[in-house]
Amino acid sequence: MEVDEAGIHWFCSGCDVLKLVNNLKESNAKLHSKVNDMEERLINIENMKSEKFKEKNRNIREELYEAKDREGRECNLVIKGIDEIGNVESDNDPLGIGQMQSDEQVVDH
């Protein structure tokens, strides 16, 4: 019997069994790829449980907390400064828009 380079008999080239085998090979390759992906995810999850990851996560959270706290203090200083200055009518604001307390007052003006 004649066999080609792929090891297939000449009469099997259109065979349904051969098509099924090829489909199974493709499915197996996809499944193998998914298994590898799941293994990588599992490794990532295991790394998250490690003390090193927990420590890094804790440090990042502390930095975020400090940044938010610092930003809040700076914002409070700006608000306090605006409150201390007050809404005084100036030459730069001849319409008195700076003295208005709400958007409705500005629109009504």
UniProtKB/TrEMBL annotation:
Sorted UniProt keywords: Coiled coil
Polar residues: compositionally biased ranges: 99-109
Stretch list, region Disordered: 90-109
Coiled-coil region(s): 21-70
Official protein name in the record: Uncharacterized protein
Organism name: Petrolisthes cinctipes
